[in-house]
Amino acid sequence: MVTKTSEVNKVLICRHIGSIRIIVRIVTENTNPVDVLGQRFGNTELIKLDWHRLIIPEFIEKGIPSS
Predict the structure, then answer these.
(1) Hey, which of 2, 4, 15, 47 would disulfide with 19, CB 3.0 to 4.6 Å?
(2) Residue 64 DSSP class
(3) Are 51 and 3 in contact (CB under 8 A)?
(4) Please, which pLDDT band fits residue 13 given cuts at 50, 70 and 90?
(5) Mean local confidence (pLDDT), 14-23
């Protein structure tokens, strides 16, 4: 795992629900796929997440292996 640090105070991300689920999963370090896929967000919902470190998941860091 790779841990990145940053001095960024605020970030705004606007995306599709699938992308938001992955971002929330990464920030909250939730590794349960049932929880991640079960997340629901309302249309134009504002989500506030606080984090102190960002761990890049292996599948993003290394990329998806080719068949």
Answers:
(1) 15
(2) P
(3) no
(4) confident
(5) 80
